[in-house]
Amino acid sequence: VGAGSGTATTTPVVVNKRITTVSGDSIKPSIVWNGVNYGLVWSDARNGGKGDIFFRLLDEGGNKVGEEKQITNTPTLISTNPEIVWNGKEFAVVYSEYDDELSANSAVNFLRINSSGVKIGSAIEVVNVIGKTNPSIASDGSGYGIVWRAPNNSTAKTYFSYLNASGEIVKNQVRVLTDEASDNTEIVWDGNQFGIIYRQSAKKLAYGDTVTYTIGTYLYRIDQGGDAIKSKLFITSKEALAGIWDGQEYAVVEDSKTFSRFGVNGNLSVTNKQVSVGGLSNQDIINNGARYGI
Fold this sequence. Notes:
It is a single chain. The chain is mainly β. It has no helices and 22 strands. 0% of the residues lie in helices and 49% in strands. Strand 18 and strand 19 (258-262) form a beta hairpin. The strands form six sheets. It has a four-stranded antiparallel sheet, with no helix packed on it. Strands 5-6-7-8 form a four-stranded antiparallel sheet, with no helix packed on it.
């Protein structure tokens, strides 16, 4: 997708390139641009494992740079749902980790990776909650904002923690949204505040129940303490599944195979432009300063 245009290119810049070749599932990828290369993380169940997080660098053409790195090693646990961010100097990853046999809880963990893909220190547990989580992370250049939903059901609420650059918890587990939101809730740094992009989906109600809500994408901006800048903003009736800040506006890819851009005031500059004729699954969106990748 061309930057600012919201129109799909007719010929992909990079045609599908396979990144992993080992046996076992390679799932839940997340990708970020650091100005030179892409940093890619995913959950990998190779060699009969339950799932660990792996990291790899790719160049702008999608070619492998160096060797892939295993950044978690917990054979009895499942490490999944990673999201990666670049803070200008190093990568940081947040992910969910749980025991699928002995516990109903899952941990939201944080770890740092240098520009070469080498893990810095050990993983830090941000919170341990009931149910499986799908955390999101953003960097403001000085620290990290992390959001997650708990518990993972129809009564879920969205929580926020702020960590400093070393991963020490500064603000812990602040409830920032009472809306049900969704597993695709994203946190993004827009240069001034954290923006939480979330969606409201159709609800399954019991016979006779009524709930007033509007299906679609919402924006809710907070500071490093989790305090609201203003009330939530309704953006569009399409449901965002992934979002970023592209340097000028928020950009999202939606469940209807569409793309939108909007400012901090919620005003749309690109509205629901189709970017795929095929189905999109577990999508992510990225911008390298010239184009978007979905």
